[in-house]
Amino acid sequence: MSALRIGVIGGGAIANLHLTSYAKNPDVEIAAIADVNADRAATVAAQWGASRSYGSPAELLADADIDAVSICTWNNTHAELAVAAVEAGKHVLVEKPLARTYAEARTVQEAAEKSDRVVSVGFVRRFSTNCRVLKSFIDEGRLGDIYYAKASAIRRVGNPGGWFADKSISGGGPLIDVGVHVIDLCWYLMGSPRAVAVSGNTYERLGNRSNITSLPRWKVADYDPAKNDVEDMANAVVRFENGASLMVDVSYSLHTPSEGLNVSVYGDRGGAQLEPELQIATEVLDTVVNMTPQIRSGTFDGVDGFDTEINWFVAACRGERENIAPAWHGVEVQKILDGIYASADAGREIALD
Ligand SMILES: NC(=O)c1ccc[n+]([C@@H]2O[C@H](COP(=O)([O-])OP(=O)(O)OC[C@H]3O[C@@H](n4cnc5c(N)ncnc54)[C@H](O)[C@@H]3O)[C@@H](O)[C@H]2O)c1
Questions:
Q1: Digit-coded pLDDT (tens) for 66-120
Q2: DSSP state of 146
Q3: Quick check: helix, strand or coil at residue 121?
């Protein structure tokens, strides 16, 4: 079989990680890069040996010698570009979140359902070894019926600024940026149950804490301390059709002594902490037993995660593997995110369709 010819749209930070992984895959040719910043597209293309660079995604999508694209642009363009790419006959790996809103995300699902192309959402944490191992335990029934999950992604001074802090581009703050990862992990490990209600709160109390000098922070290139219209933190309880529930809290800015990312799921035969390190709790002979799978890394490993995500996508495009992060998964997660924002606005629990 000939190499899968890849185009990458958006040549920023996350594109670099996609390209690092594509470059390791022998079944791939990195063919072209597109960025609205044409100079950046040309630089990134030269760096990765792509023969073409484009100053607009439309030019890349019109390139008949491209089979599949990674969409690594800002959130406001994900849905529109994913739909255009599918309609241009390309397979699509679109970065998380699938879109800014549920309505936008649905357009991608509809386009995917009308086509035979692979449309995969960049839920990279699903692909890390710790998650793959836990998922295999769950699929074998080792945790039984999962009825509760808890997720937390807390930063103290972690608002990156730039487009992340501009709601019109990002769609929101920590909930849509990092909350999407931990909510997706729980939802995926719970077996993708249908969310039926959500009660959420969002707060804009501390702002971006640009005054803080005592801690390092990662800032995007165009950081402007005066610009920020996203929430500082959000929390929620999500109810599912099967009676299961999820509790989540996320922040960019919070007065807390420590930061952390925690993901746990609890079933009637066993429970598991996925992050910060994979551990499984169960009962053996009337005794509570904690098990620690002996794997290369019990926590999310970015290199492992992106390599596996990209290799999986390439194999799915070649018809060799099932796509485990289809568009409808991105839509269901987006429904929960939208629900949390809507519930916070309404000040009460809301039902989801
Ligand atoms: N999977 C992860 O863990 C992870 C981590 C970070 C970011 N992301 C996601 O990746 C995406 C990009 O984030 P980033 O940190 O790389 O941002 P970035 O700002 O570093 O890069 C984005 C690039 O997209 C370009 N761009 C914007 N709109 C475009 C358009 N319409 N057409 C072509 N190019 C366009 C920009 O010029 C920029 O070069 C975001 O959706 C973000 O949520 C995912």
A1: 999 999 999 999 999 999 999 999 999 999 999 999 999 999 999 999 999 999 9
A2: E
A3: strand
Q: Is the CB of 95 under 6 A from ligand 1?
A: yes
Cα of 268 vs centre of ligand 1, distance in Å, is 40
Superfamily of domain 4-125+307-325: NAD(P)-binding Rossmann-like Domain (3.40.50.720)
**Ligand 1: which of 47, 95, 164 to mutate, most ligand atoms within 8 Å of CB?**
95
Express each pLDDT in 258-283 by its tens digit: 999 999 999 999 999 999 999 999 99
CB of 35 closer than 6 angstroms to any ligand 1 atom: yes
Distance of CA 248 to the CA centre of its chain: 16
285: left (phi over 0), alpha (psi -120 to 50) or beta: left
Residue 89 identity (one-letter amino acid): G
CA of residue 17 to ligand 1 center, whole Å: 11
CATH architecture of residue range(s) 127-300+332-351 = 2-Layer Sandwich (3.30)
- Cβ–Cβ under 8 Å, residues 71 and 92: yes
Whether ligand 1 lies within 6 angstroms of the CB of 182 is answered as: no
Question: From the CA of 67, how far away is ligand 1's center (Å)?
Answer: 21
DSSP state for residue 32 in the 8-state scheme: E
Distance 75 CA to ligand 1 centre (A): 7
Spans of all domains in the chain: 4-125+307-325, 127-300+332-351
The rounded Å distance from CA 86 to ligand 1 centre is 19
Q: Do domains 4-125+307-325 and 127-300+332-351 have the same CATH topology?
A: no
